[in-house]
Design brief:
single chain, 5 helices, mainly alpha, 0% strand
Amino acid sequence: MRAICSTAEVYAKLFWTFGPQVAGLFAAGQKDKAKGKMMQLFDGLGLSGLYQIILERNSKQLCKVLKVLAEPSNHPVLLNCSHGKDRTGVTVAVLLRFLGVSKEEIA
């Protein structure tokens, strides 16, 4: 996966470009407008950029999940998301690659 920009660049851009605006909109109860501002940045990143951030920021948690999945005494296991789909989807994609599924089949 090729990075669009580094995680540090993303967070700096988030804070300086959208942070004050988003915080103000949330404080004013304008949740939809705040989400719209955040989506402006994520539209520039694309899903691959977002998924790279998920992998970088959640590597410890991902390792814990994979250890649980690797232990036969834990089977069967259900992977479920409680909010959104991205972290669960990235976890399943990593698991499928470990199991030998091709990138083309996962995509």
